[in-house]
Fold this sequence. Notes:
6-stranded mixed sheet
Amino acid sequence: MRFEALSWLIFAPVLAGAALWFRPLRTWRRLVCLALLLLVLIEPQWRRLGSGLELAVLVDLSASAADALAPRMNEMQALLERSKSEDDHLFYVDYAELAQVRGEADEIPPHKRQQTRTALAIQFALSRLSPERAGRLLLITDGYSTEPLTGIEERLARQGVALDYRLVSLPSAADYRIDRLELPLRAQVGEPFLIDAEIAGEPDGPVSVEILRDGLAIGRSKVEVRQGKASVHFSDRLAQTGAHRYAAQLSAANDARPGNNRAERWIEITGGPRVVLVTNYTGDPLGAALAAKGFQVETVEDPSALHVGILSGARAVILNNTPAHRLPHDFLAGLDFYVRSQGGGLLMIGGKNSFGAGGYFDSPVDDLLPVSMESRSERRKLAVAMSIVLDRSGSMAANVVGNLQKMDLANEGAARAIELLGSMDAVSVFAVDTEPHVIVPMTTLGANRGPLMDAVRRIDSGGGGICVPTGLRAAHEQLLTAPVGQRHVVLFADANDATQELGDYPTLIKAMVKDGITISVIGLGTDTDSGAKFLREVADLGKGRIFFNANPTELPAVFAQETVAVARSAFLDDPVKVTPAAGWLELASRPLSWLESVDGYNLSYLKPEATAAAFSGDDNKAPLVSFWQRGAGRVGAVAFPLGGDFSRQVRAWKSYGDFAQTLCRWVSGDALPPGLGLRTRLDGALLRLDLFYDASWEHTFAETAPRVMLGEGADGKARELVWERLEPGHFSASAPLEPDQWVRGAVQAGKYSLAFGPIMAGSNIEWTFDPARLAELQAVSHASGGMERIDLSSVWQAPHRAEFRDLRPWLLIALALLFVADALWVRLGR
């Protein structure tokens, strides 16, 4: 308790004398009123906060600070614990890209340590301080935040909390970094552009800088760092539209921090509209036909070279009889956003490597296609005997999602394969470590499907590695007993754990192929893992396919694709008549002179809401040409081949070029009218979008406001940004970008789309040691009443915030109530 105006006590004798000599004041009620009045005058206050200090220690665990802080953290914590009193309270907030109280959550994972969000951590810690104690913050960091501290000074002042800090850094050592990589976001086809890399570091000396485009080196230069700075300039020009990823990679002797030696940016090369034709044929006749009709065709005969950047500036993508397993996963996954949000077109052409036969069932484009690839009845000439060999080695016990292990997802993949096999198919399943364990002996499915799937889902992980030859030998023996014509092995193995011990596998596989058995391999990992070369050789010798997938959650889909490709491919290689449908007139302004029949086609079924332009003339009445709208884009499907085998009648068709042109023009969408423009730019890590339009678009936007969609990475889900209307004819939007992540986007204006990206802010934001950030921290700390703490124990002796509450409002209320009570007492004559 304290009193702010004790000088008023001088009137206490006066009030006492008045009560003594003035009789009406002698009642106890009036004496209490006089005492309350005196208390109001001397302004009593009581201490609201406890005597101890609550200290929140913010520990910077970002990638740039971790090495410097780790060896000292235990000593710092011990010092803080020893020097606090019994009344003090201490808790730790670990932070990087996110902030959390230590002990309340798991340790911050490495991929969440690529930013230093100091402002977020301070706001989080302030929200966790108790209002019943004096609070203080102690920040242990290298001082270089990746976000500004805007608004933090006001928040600290509002809560009356001081911010102290302790700076940590690595011992003096050589350190060089890519300080900035600059290149334009866009350039025209054939237009030269500059790539500028700025290097910072010490001591002065030579460094080597390499420039890469899409992972391939295009230039190297040696420069001298002088007075802590150097720069490198390259130029490039590209003759094809699309987007490309550039990187600057630095190397120097005795560099203490290699994590800041790389920076990346994307550039979009713009030009006229083009069509990307991904084909399985050399000299594809479809490409020649489209080029003859005026299309700019980019033909890709090596699908492994595809990447999401190729979609930039493309009006449509055509997949011509190219199997799904030959397409990079990022490219395949990126088609969904390209079609639905960016308004791109997709056209799939039939053949023995397309649709279900090509492994597109349950793939990222399955939902885009206007046809269903899952057979609804048994129409195959031969049943299938499939033997599934599963890796159950010790590495399969690792958790990947919640409580799910790698083994659980592999089991689910095998169960999905059994689910997709037909009733007259047969299956066997082996779990393999150093020897094969029979889970399901060769069994015709029939009514056994459910129990077999349950048995497979109960496989658990064992130990050691997977000895592939022993598993293949067991599968070979089982398949020889199968009373069916088509025999196939699906081998699943960890690409880092597979071994070729215990057997002459080349001789074994050759014997299996001689017995009519093919082998496909699903490798958990990447094609650079230690066992990848061996697994690829198994697939090549076994005349099968090879899949590498580093994401265990996608294993069920990969198993499904392979099963459908083998057992439900449903490519009918007999000629069939073509039955035209009225749907063609939704694509073209005039009827088409259809060919009489085709040499073969992929059996599929029209999805609800899709439209067919032609059907097969057999009992299947399957869609031969179908199409529909998917989001902002359009998708078409041609079930018969337009090149290669089974295309003799089609290639002789007089209307081949008109047919290809009409389909391609429709899926490419309508050309964007004039009067609309989009500008994209980067402000640090902030992406800014400006949409400009003239009066011709006013009516369109009055009915439907433009939308801007943004997607992270290849398969990132689209999210909508909010526009701000700055003035007539000008909308603006912005979005912060994460390091090491790139985004694509589109502005949807009515039925038109303006696509942009990929764009990335750069991967070195965490390693950009901007002195302005350190100065900003020091200024905020000083303004809050804090300071740099060289001796951490001194933080407990810092002045505590003493907060008092004024009691006068309560005393005045009491005085008023007592005064009214006294008046009533007198009035009632009591």
